[in-house]
Design goal:
mainly alpha, Rhomboid-like fold, two-stranded antiparallel ribbon, elongated
């Protein structure tokens, strides 16, 4: 193509600024838009006219969510729209859990990573302190079905929560919820070894319930699913309802903190409060179970 043919083709220039060369198309109308006219979307970019049309077509619930979570807040969408942390958690957890199922290897991995409350306290395990067991149970599971169900739930919840919260906040919520599940097991079921990411998963479900309620969405379905899952674990002796309960309570608390500290100027308070929750959980698990057992 010659220079004259190139400059004569208006598709090579922004439709709003004919003097600006660009090769980026709006994903809706497929017109060429320059960087000034581009608005980042979950996939590609959209032009100002398509953005205006999209805003006009939003439901009342979406408009309320935009007002509460939009401009100036600290909880914003991930630019790429891809839940990278969710994918990483899925990959790492699946790899270790599948490795755990290999005969001759699995027993060693399970015994090294599962949560067993006495192993946290030197007075009960011969003087060895193993604090990593508060979080490593998230990486091992009781079988393929257990793994598949938890990873499906993580994938579904992560698709919604991570783009809404951002990667760092989503990861913090997942880990703090998992920690809450382990603390609850230490308090309520001291002698039982526990594995699985269910505590963290219940934390994400409870968080979605709190955030959905905050933005005015219909959360009845989430509440029903959370209730059914918790009841199933409570009446099934092979499932740690204690981890579910602890994860759900802590996940809801973390979500509450995020919804109340969403503005940019509140970022320091958000970090301080999340750190305080984490420290409080560590203090609880370090102090209360030994006192109960020694009393």
């Amino acid at each position: 193509m010659t220079s004259s043919e190139f400059t004569g083709n208006r598709d090579n220039f922004c439709y709003r600024h004919p003097d600006r060369q660009s090769f980026v198309l709006c994903q809706r109308c497929l017109r060429t838009v320059c960087p000034e006219c581009q608005t980042q979307a979950p996939v590609g970019v959209i032009c100002p006219e398509c953005m205006t049309a999209e805003r006009k077509n939003r439901t009342p619930a979406q408009k309320r969510a935009q007002r509460r979570w939009g401009g100036g807040g600290t909880i914003t969408a991930v630019r790429s729209g891809k839940p990278v942390v969710t994918y990483a958690l899925l990959a790492v957890t699946s790899f270790i859990s599948l490795l755990q199922m290999i005969p001759g290897v699995g027993d060693q991995i399970t015994s090294a990573l599962l949560f067993y409350a006495p192993t946290l306290y030197p007075q009960y395990n011969g003087g060895i302190f193993e604090p990593w067991r508060l979080l490593t149970p998230l990486l091992v599971h009781g079988g393929f079905i257990h793994l598949a169900l938890n990873m499906l739930a993580l994938w579904m919840l992560g698709q919604t929560l991570e783009p809404m919260l951002g990667r760092a906040r989503f990861l913090a919520m997942y880990l703090i919820s998992g920690l809450g599940g382990s603390v609850a097991v230490a308090l309520l079921d001291f002698e039982t070894p526990t594995v699985g990411a269910s505590g963290a998963i219940f934390g994400l479900m409870a968080a979605l319930l709190i955030i959905g309620r905050h933005v005015g969405a219909n959360v009845t379905g989430i509440l029903v699913v959370l209730g059914i899952n918790f009841a199933f674990g409570f009446f099934n002796g092979g499932i740690s309802w204690q981890a579910h309960l602890g994860g759900a309570i802590v996940g809801a608390l973390v979500a509450f903190i995020l919804t109340r500290t969403r503005r940019r100027e509140q970022r320091t308070w958000q970090i301080v409060l999340l750190a305080a929750v984490t420290v409080a959980l560590l203090v609880i698990v370090a102090v209360i179970p030994p006192l109960i057992l020694l009393s």
